[in-house]
C-alpha cells in the first residue's frame, strides 16, 4: 500500500455519534497531496458524515483531523481551506452561473479585476463561458454539476470534497464527466476526496479507495488492490460481484492452499494467503469473470462439471449460472468475442474451470 | 450545525409573550369580582353565572352556529366545485372573469363587501320583493359568498398537488368523468375539503363587519352582540364570554392537532413497516 | 329522451354544472352587487328610500362624488392615515414575524409543531375578542398601562411625569392592535417559504467562506422574497380597509377609510359618496395585488 510519507490530510481515530447512533467509528486515514481519494460504501456507512466533518459541518466526537499540519478542531466551515461539491450541487437559485462561481471570492482580499479574471478562468475550465448569465434552472444537469465544481474550485481550496459527484447524472454523461473530473484534478493539482456508493465510479476515478461499512473503514488500497485482493468478505462482496463458498483449509503445499469445498464436492487449489492454517474454516471466493466455461475439460487443476441453468445475454458478454451436482449455483462471465460462437445454451452440460491464482481465500 | 440560534429563540419567546399576555390577562380578569373591569377586586365566578343565565347570549350563539353550519356547508360545496374547475378544466370560456371573481373577494375590504351586499339586498327587495326582510337568510348568503373562495383556494392547491395519473387510471378502467370525480378525486382531496369547511365555519362564526351590514331587526349573532357591548367599553361579563370562547376553540385546536399528529405518526410507522418488509 | 340526457351529462353536462353553479353564484352575489355600487357612485343623494337617484341632464356622467373624494381634505387625510397605518403595521409585522418564522424553522420538530399550533391558535379565536383583549390592557387603569406609566416616570425627569400613558383612541393603538391581530398572517407564509429552502444552500455558502450573518443576507433573505411579499400583502390589504380596529381603539378625529365609508353610508346616508370612496379604495388595493401576483408568477417561473 502506497502510504504517503508526509500525509497532507491526516484523520486520526475520528468517531462521531449522534445520540445513541455511532455514525463513524475510530477512522484513521492518511491522504497524500494531489491524490484522488474515495470513500466508498453503502448508504448509512458513515462516509457522508466523515465528509461533513472534513468540511466542518460536524465536529468529531473523538479523534482529530489535521490538514497540512494544522489541527482543524473548532475551525468553522467558513474558515477552512476546504470546499465541497454538494450532491444536490446546492447552487444558489437566485444567482446567475457567474455569480455562483464568484460567490466564494467575495471573502477574498482580491482586486475586483483579479476576481473577474478568476471567474473567467473557472468558467473556461469547465467550459461554461457561454452560460455565465443563466440561472441554475436554465441549464442542464451536467452543466449544473460543472458550475458546482467551478464554484468550489474558484477559491483554490487545499482540499475539494465531492459528495456523490456523478450520482445525479445519467449513465452516458457520467462516463464523460468522470474523465473530465480527472483531467481537471490533474490540471489544478487539488486533492480530491470523493464520497460515492458506486464502486465503478470509485474504481475509475480514484488513486486510492477506502471501503467503509457501519462507520468503519474495512480496507484501504488502490482500485486494483481492493478488487483483486480484498482482505475480508464485506469488501469482496461490495466491490464487483463474487461467488462465495464455505471451505476448510486442508493443507499448504508448494505456495498454494488445498481447500475442501463441499459445494464443489471436491478439493480446490487456491493461491496461498498468510494467516490461515490447516483445519481452519474459511470463505472461498471467485469472481465470475475468472471462472471460465467450456464444452471440453479445461487444462487446469480446478475443473468441475455442471449444467447451464440460466443465461443472461448482455451483448459484449454473457452471464451464465451453472448448477453444480451439489445443487450450488456458480456465476460465470464469458466474453462474446466471436459472433455466433456463444459457448453454451440452456441445459447444456459444461465444464467450469479456474486457475488457483484466481481463487481468493478470506479468513474472516 | 449544532449552533443554538439564541437571538431567534429570544424573539420567539417575546413573540409568544406578545401573542398570549393579552389573552391571559383577559382570562384572569374574567374572574374579577369588581364591576370595574380593569381593577382587581378579588376572585369570583359571578360573571360566568350571569352569563349562563343570559338568554340573549345563548340565543345569539345559537343563531351564529346555525348560520355558520349552513353557510359553511354550502360554501364548501360551491368552493370545492370552483377549486376542481380551476385546477382541472384548463381553458374554458370566461375563465379569466371566473378567476377574477374567485380572487376579488379575498382582497375586497370587508366594508365594501358588506355595503355592496346590503345595497344589493335593499334594491332586490325594492325591485322583485325578495328578500322580504333581512336576517338569517341574507347573512347566510353573504357568508357563503365570501367564504367559498377560501374553500376554493384550499381545494385548488390540494388538487394541483394530487397525482393526475390516478384519475386517468380510473378513466382507463372504464369510469365516466363524473364517476371519477366521485370515486377518486373527492376521496383523495377530502382532507382539504374538511379543512375548507372548518375554515368557512370559523370565518362565518367570527365575522362582524359583513354581518353587521346584512343583518336585519331581530337577527343578532354572537359577534354582533359582543360588538355592540364592546363599543361601549370593557366589561367583566365580556371577559368571561371571551374566556369561554378562547378555551373552547383552544381545546378544539389542541385536540385536532393531537389527532392529526397521531395520524401522521401512524402513517410514518406504517411506511417504515412496509419499507422493512420489502427488504 | 332519457338516454340523450344521460349522454349529454356524461359528456359535458357534469362539467357545465361544476363550472356553472359557482360561476352563477359569484356573478349574482358578488359581481352584481359590486357593479351596483360602482353605478351608485355616479348617482345623486336624495331624501327618498333608497336614498339615491340618477337625475340631472347626464344621469351616468355625474362625477361629483369623485371630485369630492379627491378635493376634500377629509377623504385624502383618511386615505393617507389608512395607508400609513397599514404600511407601518406591515413593516412591524415583518420585523417581528421574520425572526419568529426563522426561529420556527430552527427549533426541533416536536417543538415546531407545538409552536406552529400556538401561532395559529389566536387566529381561530375570535378576531373581535383579540381586539378587545388589548382594550383591556390599554385602558387608563389597567395593570399594563400602570406598568408602562411607572417605568416611564422612573426613567424620565419629574417634569415629564404622567398619570397614565395615553394609548386608547390613538393611531398608535390602531397600529399596535393591527400588528397583534395580523402577525400570524405574516408568520405563516414566511414560515412556509423559509421552511422550503434547501439547508444545503446555507452549508454551501458557509463552505465558501460566509459567516452566518452573510449566509442570511446572501442566501436566505433573497430567496424568501416571495414569502415576504405574500405576508406583506396579507397584512396590508385587510389592514388598509380595516373597520373594527379603528372603531374600537382608534382616534375618531382622524378616521381611517373603512370607518369613513361606513359612516357615509349608515350615518350620513350618502350612498353615492360611500360608493365613490369604496371604488377609489378598491382601485388603490389593485396596485399591491398586482405586485403580489407579479412576484407569484416570478416564483412559479423559476421553479
TrEMBL record, chain A:
InterPro entries documented for this protein = AAA+_ATPase, ABC_SmlMolc_Importer, ABC_transporter-like_ATP-bd, ABC_transporter-like_CS, Mo/tungstate-bd_C_term_dom, P-loop_NTPase, PotA-like, Transp-assoc_OB_typ2
- Write out the GO biological process terms: putrescine transport
**Top-level taxonomic group:** Bacteria
State the Gene Ontology terms under molecular function: ABC-type polyamine transporter activity; ATP binding; ATP hydrolysis activity
Sorted keywords for this record are: ATP-binding, Cell inner membrane, Cell membrane, Membrane, Nucleotide-binding, Translocase, Transport
Could you state one GO cellular component term attached to this entry?
ATP-binding cassette (ABC) transporter complex
Q: Which reaction does it catalyse?
A: ATP + H2O + polyamine-[polyamine-binding protein]Side 1 = ADP + phosphate + polyamineSide 2 + [polyamine-binding protein]Side 1
Record note on quaternary structure: The complex is composed of two ATP-binding proteins (PotA), two transmembrane proteins (PotB and PotC) and a solute-binding protein (PotD).
* Similarity comment: Belongs to the ABC transporter superfamily. Spermidine/putrescine importer (TC 3.A.1.11.1) family.
What PANTHER family does the annotation carry?
PUTRESCINE TRANSPORT ATP-BINDING PROTEIN POTG, SPERMIDINE/PUTRESCINE IMPORT ATP-BINDING PROTEIN POTA
Q: What is this protein called?
A: Spermidine/putrescine import ATP-binding protein PotA
UniProtKB/TrEMBL annotation, chain B:
Q: Which cellular component appears as one GO term in the record?
A: plasma membrane
> What protein family is recorded?
Belongs to the binding-protein-dependent transport system permease family. CysTW subfamily.
Membrane topology is: Multi-pass membrane protein
Instruction: State the Gene Ontology BP annotations.
Output: transmembrane transport
Any idea where this protein resides? Cell membrane
Give the primary localization class: membrane
> Which segments constitute the ABC transmembrane type-1 domain?
61-259
Q: Which InterPro entries match?
A: Bact_Polyamine_Transport, MetI-like, MetI-like_sf
Give TM regions.
Answer: 7-31, 60-84, 96-124, 136-159, 180-203, 238-259
UniProt keywords (A-Z) are: Cell membrane, Membrane, Transmembrane, Transmembrane helix, Transport
Under the heading PANTHER family, the entry gives: PUTRESCINE TRANSPORT SYSTEM PERMEASE PROTEIN POTI
Q: What protein does this entry describe?
A: ABC transporter permease subunit
UniProtKB/TrEMBL annotation, chain C:
A biological process (GO) of this protein is: transmembrane transport
Q: Give the record's GO CC terms.
A: plasma membrane
Q: Which residues span the membrane?
A: 21-42, 74-102, 114-135, 172-192, 227-250, 270-293
The segment(s) forming the ABC transmembrane type-1 domain are 79-292
User: CDD domains from the xrefs?
Assistant: TM_PBP2
**Sequence similarity:** Belongs to the binding-protein-dependent transport system permease family. CysTW subfamily.
Entry protein name: ABC transporter permease
What is the native source organism of this protein?
Answer: Gemmobacter lutimaris
Upper classification of the source organism reads:
Bacteria, Pseudomonadati, Pseudomonadota, Alphaproteobacteria, Rhodobacterales
